[in-house]
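Worked example 2:
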Amino acid sequence: MKQTEIVVVGGGPAGMAASLAAARSGARVLLVERHPSLGGQLVKQTHRFFGSGAQSAGVRGITIARDMAAQVAAEPGIEVWTQTEALGYYSDGVLLVERPGVQLETVRGRRLILAVGASERPLSFPNNDLPGVYGAGAVQTLMNEYGVLPGRRVVMVGAGNIGLIVSYQLLQAGVEVAAILEAAPQIGGYLVHAAKIARAGVPIRTSHTVVAAFGETELTGIRAARVGPDWQPIPGTEFDIACDVLCLAVGLSPLVELARLAGCEVQYVPELGGYIPVHDDHLRTTVPEVYVAGDAAGVEEASSALVEGRLAGLEAAHSLHPQPDYEPLRREALDELAALRAGPTAAKIRAGLAKLGTVEGGARA
């Protein structure tokens, strides 16, 4: 059995930030990532980040991923296991993983940080399993990781930041974006992204959604319709769009399986993506040894995931090795999160956090 002080599951922005913060606070860290390399969703993000310099504003996600992975590799207190799948967590604090060439292995850490991210939500409609129907993350993987175009003519469903950003990346790659459909009555993403799409001549149809897909062996088109205040399609408003790709950017759901196995209490908070582990402002769950960060703690922007990861790593390490500079570092991270969650675009996040239950010792406002 592998023994260490802190196990971090997930090598995306939150997991890398947590590992670095914990190791720099004197803890021995094992970082477990199922993919061959670190970076998570950052390796798909070719756009520049917003925010402030503290959250790498103006830097592309792929660059952030590369720089952070290099820092992790150079940090002597961090051991990295890539191509390693976390399969289960047991009541005695043992994590079961599968490693290439080793098969099953057990790991016990004194603290566990879950930075496992989120999964894409599907949509239910006739023929939604046709080849050519993708999640936005799959399209980003094809284009930005493997240099493969998903098709020639795309309809995007969802005008949040992901839908708008991926639409623009498709345009940059020479793919025609026939339309963006958004069920809400207004665009959910930043207007700066929507403006670039509009300048390119792509129609953004709010209060619209997809109701069916067409094709025999592959997608050839979709049927869209206007939706009413009840979010249901309005009969008689249907129209067809020819396309060979339908890209779904309709939200993310936090991955809570390991948290449930660890015995963490979960709560349904739709503003944060669905079921999430209940946690305090130290990012500690109802199981004191288990922390959570990034989209697994509630779906937000990657900038927030970076700060949450840093905070979770700091908190977990401090619980083992009290640090004299803990309080100013903690306050700095909390202030950064407050700034990222300020303003009208983050109102939903604030509402979700207000609903989230507290745990003993927590101080969530």
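The CA atoms of residues 79 and 259 lie 22 Å apart. The radius of gyration is 21 Å.
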